[in-house]
């Protein structure tokens, strides 16, 4: 304790964070870095694997996508008009009837050099071939001066065949999103809408292997930690609130068994975010790329009944941006498809981050839109985008986003006997002991039997608006003193939290969503001390560094040998779901 009173924070980070890797996986991105770093590596959470031939579909889970129905289209138009009245802009039909002067659009491939900054935004195609170093010069210098012409020609032929381009077996991160559809690769996303992307088209074993390959690539290429040295490192896993218990178990197996870390501990994003901003009580609103969630924290302890999961996020705003521009006829006549062409979604995300904001009045911007078609160079089209304040308002009116076109993966895989949450009285196999059962006085019992509040963990994803979700979450605490404190301690995290004008919009909409009979008249969103997209990762780093006793950490050998079961020893103190049980090693 005396050491903690005198040590400088930067010194503590350097001493205890050099061998601590913090991993924060998400649906669209994964954030990994050493705890001593100021910020993590933010890498798209995807992998493209080479196929034997050009695939019919370039995205593994493409068949799960759906089309917008007529009813959904009508709901979307109604939502647009509601938002238009709030923002004091023209209604949807009013815009169409009054557009007598069409928007001017044109290719800008031949713009003057001094204005060529827009061209830098062009996303290049990924080079899918392995980089090979040619040894022709060394071989050429070793050839004797008296060597015959026939021998030289033979060597040249062998050289040319040896440097034939070879496809990379797999490509991770942003490079995977930039692969041309003409190349023999299929893109896979291991996590979709906050859950493992397991379906008939994407088996569980492939999901686990892909996740391992992505994380291993980042550790080697970004952090320069080879497999042979990982026994000297520990891992802090910051998991989303959407993860079920079995998904957490599989993540632990990847980190300890496959990636070979010596020890690991699990924290949840909501609580980690509170520590990342130096708070103790807050309503954490996490707006991710594909999922948003709300959960309340009181004095460093999560309140499980306040969790609400919303199945929409930043990528839905990007798709809505495309729909809005096409409806207003401001989008160039190019084939842009955010669902089946990952490079198009990458472009739309950048346009959203650069131009979308929330404020009253018409919001327009002149920008360059790019077209990416297989077999031809990318094209650039200068245009004027309009109604840029409408798509982010879809967070409060989700009908505008139509998240059903990108549904979550089916959850049927949880019906097997390895589910750690399943209530069953069947006598388990030997392997089931590590999958969630523990010995009792009369046989084996499910580990959750003594915790009825957690028998059916709420994993349903709601479609209510963000302001309604925040209000519902806070009011569910049932205590007026805590409710007042939480309404004045809202914390926005996730990449979408950087949207200009979002904080004031959340405050205004939440204040209007509070029922009139509630004695609450003040709301406030607290400013984040660090990048909202990285605050959970930073909180995980802080929790890992300050955890001197490491009572909750799991060792690799014990996890591989026998797993963990309920007992009186170690536990995940900071996971609201797992804190209901005390976890200890099976060393008997």
TrEMBL record:
Region (Disordered): 136-157
UniProt feature, compositional bias: Low complexity: 136-149
Top-level taxonomic group: Eukaryota
InterPro entries, per the entry: Actin, ATPase_NBD
Record SMART domains: ACTIN
Pfam families in alphabetical order: Actin
Homology family: Belongs to the actin family. ARP8 subfamily.
Protein name: Actin-related protein 9
Taxonomic lineage of the native organism: Eukaryota, Viridiplantae, Streptophyta, Embryophyta, Tracheophyta
């Amino acid at each position: 304790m005396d050491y903690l009173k005198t040590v400088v924070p930067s010194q503590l980070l350097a001493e205890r964070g050099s061998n601590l890797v913090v991993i924060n996986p998400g649906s669209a991105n994964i954030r990994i870095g050493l705890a001593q770093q100021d910020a993590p590596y933010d890498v798209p959470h995807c992998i493209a694997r080479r196929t034997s031939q050009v695939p019919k579909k370039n995205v593994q889970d493409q068949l799960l996508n759906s089309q917008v129905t007529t009813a959904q289209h009508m709901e979307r138009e109604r939502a647009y008009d509601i938002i238009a009245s709030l923002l004091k802009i023209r209604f949807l039909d009013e815009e169409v009837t009054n557009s007598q002067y069409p928007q001017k659009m044109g290719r800008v491939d031949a713009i003057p050099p001094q204005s060529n900054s827009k061209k830098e935004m062009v996303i290049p195609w990924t080079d899918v071939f392995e980089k090979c170093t040619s040894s022709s010069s060394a071989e050429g210098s070793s050839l004797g001066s008296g060597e015959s012409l026939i021998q030289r020609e033979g060597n040249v032929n062998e050289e040319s065949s040896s440097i034939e381009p070879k496809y990379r077996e797999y490509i991770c991160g942003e490079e995977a999103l930039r692969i041309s559809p003409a190349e023999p690769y299929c893109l896979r996303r291991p996590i979709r809408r906050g859950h493992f992307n397991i379906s008939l088209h994407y088996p569980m074993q492939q999901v686990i292997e892909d996740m391992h390959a992505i994380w291993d690539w980042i550790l080697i290429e970004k952090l320069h930690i080879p497999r042979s040295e990982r026994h000297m490192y520990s891992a802090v896993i910051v998991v989303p609130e959407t993860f079920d218990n079995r998904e957490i178990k599989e993540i632990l197996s990847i980190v300890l068994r496959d990636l070979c870390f010596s020890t690991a501990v699990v924290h949840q994003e909501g609580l980690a975010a509170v520590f990342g901003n130096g708070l103790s009580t807050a309503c954490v609103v996490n707006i991710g790329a594909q999922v948003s969630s709300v959960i309340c924290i009181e004095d460093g302890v999560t309140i499980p009944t306040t969790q609400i999961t919303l199945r929409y996020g930043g990528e839905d705003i990007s798709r809505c941006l495309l729909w809005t521009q096409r409806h207003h006829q401001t989008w160039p006549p190019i084939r842009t498809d955010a669902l089946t062409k990952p490079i198009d979604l990458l472009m739309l995300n950048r346009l959203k981050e650069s131009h979308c904001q929330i404020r009253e009045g018409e919001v327009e911007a002149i920008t360059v839109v790019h077209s990416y078609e297989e077999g031809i160079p990318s094209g650039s089209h200068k245009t004027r985008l309009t109604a840029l304040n409408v798509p982010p308002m879809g967070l409060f009116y989700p009908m505008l986003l139509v998240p059903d076109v990108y549904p979550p993966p089916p959850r049927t895989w949880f019906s097997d006997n390895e589910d750690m949450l399943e209530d069953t009285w069947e006598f388990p196999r030997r392997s089931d002991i590590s999958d969630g059962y523990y010995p009792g006085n009369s046989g084996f019992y499910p580990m959750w039997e003594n915790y009825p509040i957690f028998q059916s963990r709420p994993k349903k994803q709601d479609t209510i608006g963000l302001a309604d979700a925040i209000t519902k979450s806070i009011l569910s605490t049932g205590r007026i003193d805590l409710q007042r404190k939480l309404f004045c301690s809202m914390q926005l995290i996730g990449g979408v939290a950087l949207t200009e004008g979002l904080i004031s919009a959340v405050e205004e909409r939440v204040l209007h969503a509070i029922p009139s009979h509630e004695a609450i008249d003040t709301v406030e969103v607290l400013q984040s001390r660090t990048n909202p997209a990285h605050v959970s990762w930073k909180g995980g780093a802080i929790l890992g560094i300050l955890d001197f006793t490491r009572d909750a950490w799991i060792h690799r050998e014990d996890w591989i040998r026998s797993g963990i079961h309920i007992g009186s020893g170690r536990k995940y103190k900071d996971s609201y779901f797992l804190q209901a049980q005390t976890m200890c090693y099976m060393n008997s």
